[in-house]
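Sample intake sheet
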Amino acid sequence: MLPCFTKKLFGFDCPGCGLQRSVTYLFQGEFVAAFEMYPAIYTILPLFAFLLADVFFKIKYANKIIITLMSSSVALILINYILKFF
């Protein structure tokens, strides 16, 4: 795993801490552990898949879907980051 430079330099987690471990848990089939490690994983992966599909296919309402997935990802990342401090 790549080390978190923010954690090494400043001593606290960054908003992306846990993403690598969450992806590892997904590959191992541990879906609940992946969610507990980084809840936004389940909005980030569909977002990237949809962005890739949008390149090859013309999808109706693509902008609204992308904005919804991005907004929910950012919200989950920020909520998870804030809850780490409590």
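Comment: The chain is about 70% helix and 0% strand. Residues 23 and 34 are 7 Å apart (CA to CA).
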